[in-house]
UniProtKB/TrEMBL annotation:
The Fumarylacetoacetase-like C-terminal domain, residue ranges: 24-225
Record keyword Iron-sulfur present: no
Molecular function per GO: hydrolase activity
Protein source organism: Microbacterium helvum
Protein name: Fumarylacetoacetate hydrolase family protein
Length: 516
């Protein structure tokens, strides 16, 4: 059955899809697994923002895209309408405080999102930015895990997901919010959007429907986008601004936004619009110049590590890893991947789909090295031939893992240098859960940050802070030249005492031969 709309604000058509004007509208930043997978980050706990009740509009309304902006995005959502006040309610009792469910469209102007820094005050608070309705579904007669939300853009389906696919169940949102303040009768909770949210332009018609398949429905919530004539006054506040990150997240992907694939030098920029509860975006790697790369290729890890120790860096070694290819040398900037110990429920939520492992191998750029934290556990594979092939095709310089490698021989045949603790035939889920990428990790006893310089050869793998790389490379090559000269003298029959290291007499001779 549906709930009758008997609004005390019936004279105001904006609230015709609700029992009345809501005192509060609370929205969640990220709640669907499909959306989290699309964005490459998954929140550990729900985080929220407020929308003003003046942003509410009814089905059949229009929404203006302000002059001078380009990224007005739609987000089809399930809206909860609070029936009775809720304050510190238990999870088991939370749903009883929900009177009705309906459709909502949480429009947002990404041109303003970065400056809002997660509050979304301006980016999502505009007039008409919260269409709701048209009908209310009685919450008492439905299973909150059995709801469906669908969105159409100009008649074409673009979003289709179930509440069962949410990271945080609907009742949890009610119970969680009630810990912090009283949810009052008529308040509205916007419960987040699934994958498929994208940009609408003037002339587009967006429709959202919430229903129980085969059961009650909210009906289609229809909103038409129109071009506004008014812009923003620079004398009063910051102006709209967009970059490729905002375009990517507004459209849903770089491809949909018409952007080229990211280059190995550009990396990923920080998302200033995310909430603090979400995982960080990948750090931007510094550019490793061809000149510096050539120096590091020429310098052995033994010499580089000696120069690091002279500068007080004694924990630069990734211990216990060996190359799969004889004579392999890797030089590149780090892209990191972290596994946590296997746990059944966490593997259910993080192990499948487009997980952190797959995202890391899809994101690696030319000349970069994927460094994997596997806690030194080599009793399970941390990559196999398919992912190795993906990294090789992307131009990766190699992979370093303090875990095992599956399909070891096949990976070697691909030609991708991989430093690991050895081969193991098991699949990922035996010991590890792929958790996050492009964060600070520990690999083989060494701390590795995205953008650190990784150098590996037959002696092992070391980590060089980017700011020291040029200095250390130059010093290591100078020492190599000196050591080569010493080796020639030893081959001539000279004793090493006083020659290695050189005393003042030998130093003077060396300097003279070098023209110093």
């Amino acid at each position: 059955m549906t709930v009758e709309t008997t609004s005390p604000d019936a004279a105001d058509p904006r609230f015709s899809g609700l029992p009345g004007r809501p005192g509060k509208i609370i929205a969640i930043h990220l709640s669907y697994a499909s959306r989290a997978d699309q964005r490459g980050r998954r929140p550990a706990a729900p985080s929220y923002f407020f929308k003003p009740s003046s942003s509410v509009s009814a089905s059949g309304s229009t929404i203006e895209r302000p002059a001078g902006t380009e990224l007005l995005a739609f987000e089809g959502e399930i809206a909860l309408v609070i029936g009775t006040p809720a304050r510190r309610v238990a999870l088991a009792d939370a749903w009883s405080h929900v009177a009705a469910v309906t459709a909502a469209n949480d429009f947002g102007l990404y041109d303003l999102r970065a400056n809002d820094k997660g509050s979304n005050v301006r980016s999502k608070g505009g007039d008409g930015y919260t269409p709701v309705g048209p009908g209310l579904i009685d919450a008492r007669e439905i299973d909150p895990a059995d709801l469906r939300v669908r969105t159409w853009l100009n008649g074409e389906p673009v979003q289709d997901d179930r509440s069962a696919g949410m990271i945080f169940p609907l009742a949890q949102l009610v119970a969680d919010l009630s810990q912090h303040f009283t949810l009052e009768t008529g308040d509205v909770i916007l419960t987040g959007t699934p994958a498929g949210s994208s940009v609408a332009v003037p002339g587009d018609v967006v429709e959202v429907e919430v229903d129980v398949p085969g059961g009650p429905s909210s009906g289609r919530l229809v909103t038409t986008v129109v071009q506004g004539e008014a812009g923003f006054d620079a004398a009063l506040g910051s102006l709209p601004a967009v970059d490729d990150l905002q375009r990517t997240e507004a459209w849903g992907s770089r491809e949909a936004a018409g952007l080229p694939a990211p280059s190995s030098e550009s990396g990923d920029l920080a998302d200033t619009g995310r909430s603090g509860a979400e995982s960080p975006a990948p750090a931007r790697s510094p550019v490793l110049s061809e000149g510096l790369r050539a120096k590091l290729v020429a310098a052995p890890t033994a010499g580089l590590s000696a120069q690091l120790r002279k500068r007080g860096h004694h924990s630069c070694f990734i211990d216990g890893v060996f190359a799969n290819l004889d004579g392999a040398k890797i030089v590149g900037t780090a892209r990191t991947l972290r596994f946590v110990p296997f746990r059944e429920d966490l593997f259910q939520t993080h192990g499948g789909g487009y997980n952190a492992q797959k995202r890391a191998f899809d994101a690696v750029g030319e000349g970069e090295v994927i460094v994997i934290e596997a806690r030194g556990d080599d009793t399970s594979g941390t990559l196999g031939d398919i992912l190795a092939l993906r990294a090789h095709v992307r131009g990766a310089a190699g992979v370093v893992t303090d875990g095992g490698v599956r399909d070891f021989d096949a990976v070697a045949e691909i030609g991708l240098p991989v430093f690991s603790k050895g081969a193991h035939p098991s699949v990922l889920g035996r010991r590890h859960v792929p958790w996050e990428h492009d964060v600070t990790i520990a690999c083989g006893g060494a701390t590795v940050q995205p953008g650190d310089i990784i150098v590996g050869d037959g002696d092992g793998v070391i980590v060089i802070p980017p700011g020291l790389a040029e200095e250390v490379a130059d010093a290591a090559l100078a020492q190599e030249a000196e050591d080569a000269w010493i080796a020639e003298r030893v081959a001539e029959g000279h004793a090493v005492d006083g020659l290695f290291p050189m005393n003042a007499e030998w130093r003077a001779r060396y300097d003279a031969e070098q023209g110093r």
